[in-house]
Predict the structure.
Amino acid sequence: MIIALLCILVYLFKPFCINLIMPNKALVDIFNEIADMLSVDGRPTARFEIRAYQNAAMALSSMSEDVSELYKRDGRDGLLSINGIGKGLADKIIEYIETGHIKKYEDMKKLYPIDFANLTRIDGMGAKRAITLYKMLGVKDIPTLKKAIDEHKIMGLEGFGEKSEQLLAKGVAMLEGSKGRILLGDALPIAESITKMLYDSGLVEKAIVCGSTRRMKETVGDLDILAISKEPEKVMDKFSGYKNVTGIVAKGPTKTTVWLDAGLTCDLRVIAPESFGAAMQYFTGSKEHNVEVRKIAISKGYKLNEYGLFDSKDNVVSAIDEKDIYMRLGMDYIEPEMRENRGEIDLAKRHALPKLVRIEDLKGDLHSHTIETDGTNTLEEMAEAAIKKGFEYLAITNHTKSLKIAHGMDDNKFSAFFKRIDSLNEKLDGKITLLKGAEVDIMKDGSLDLNNSTLKKMDIVIAAVHSNFNMKIDDMTARVSKAISTGYVDVLAHPTGRIINEREPYAIDMRKIADIAEEHNTALEIDSYPSRLDLNDASVFAIKDHNIRFAIDSDAHNTVHFDFLRYGIGMARRGWLEKKNVLNTMPLKQLLKRLQ
Ligand code: DGT
Ligand code: CA
Ligand code: CA
């Protein structure tokens, strides 16, 4: 039972422990580790301490400002003004800013010299288990874990067994297989911080992120940035001296490659302004798309490369403007997210490309959490932040009772909570409409985790699988189909349950699910959480011709997470979705009518 609960804890919190790259990363890591190490502390108060450290880590990771800058400017009060930071934690932050370390952390680290950050990324491995393995087998990082698995030392331990050992082996393999590719949700903010730094320096006229990041691929191998500058060598100096650069791979007068602390490399090229469009086209890729485009150029007697489109006499036909290059080749402009050679070139030639959904098309968000379950902001704070985002509506969809570890709510708690939403809606007077909802657990047998009478009170019901992931494909498909067939489910949340680089999607027949969803008017979610992105582009692409709607949701657990929506939009666009395919592009009135 305890093991089962632990597993749920690991599954549940993993997606929300992603490491966004930000100025406060070092502190976030330290606080998360302290929380991990406290997890074996038997004191009754440890639970609160753990939560305090986790909340602080979450708060810091959502800040766009460097916490030391805030401290310099506003002192201790500045730190206390951060949601989720109390007095004790503020002092810890000050200790870190002033001395470069935190004594409590270093003392604990002596006790547990464990690489929690990497070990707990493995599916089935929480902090408690990591500590157990350290105590029993001396496992402290991935290599020592691998050795213990290879020598089959884990299956003999109490509370582990053969299955856990196999699961850990799978997790290690996945982690190693992901080497070098980082989440779009980490990569894009870094790329943007680099282009901002270049613009701020005054040295560049243009700095554009290309490559897989521009195509919004769910993971990114390396960053590709192109710039225009009259002083390329100064740009190279500025770039290689950037604060997040940890090493220089190659430095030349117009091209430099560096290592970044996030664990990936970044190429920066200064391009002649007259060939910038051609360079953008080339370096955006994908390679497969480029190969096809080049074939078309050749068929027209042209030559296409990163410098431009040239005729047979080497005269420039087009080079400055990316759109113009496509036009000269007889194609409509193809959005970067579509450039994967999945049929887009043919459509561009026939002037039949879809008009992709845009972030501005979203009228609201249908999946969010508050402090009542595992969110870190209050209902009022979430509403306020959603208003700032310009949403017409926000669905509050807290977890249900089976997810004990996320403080899932029972029928009574939902009833009371909905009264609060009603009265807040009245107070908000139309500035935004909060929708009463829940993220209802789909039980192992396909039933829903709340009474029908409670479900009937809701504006929107989201359902999701949070347990028993290892079912056979037919059983899982039947389980989820049964849940949808209750007729209560408006949105199926994160339909495959995958966590990028950490947990494989569960086995499920998505086409069958799409059939059932069509029958019951259930939307399928594109969860925008950077480690989820579920459904992903390929799944969306595969079922987009069903008569179903997709819901692009943030799955926000705090007020900053609404910013994740752009990654979900990225998946939707990569799956060729248009505005009409997306449920939450509907204005409130129309949405409510459909949900009834
Ligand atoms: P990544 O970095 O693995 O996430 O994926 P990309 O697409 O950013 O690939 P990358 O960084 O190797 O190259 C950036 C772009 O440059 C790529 O999308 C297309 C272009 N490119 C690179 N190598 C070739 C090539 O051999 N042929 C052609 N046509 N284009 C290439
Ligand atoms: Ca790249
Ligand atoms: Ca590259």
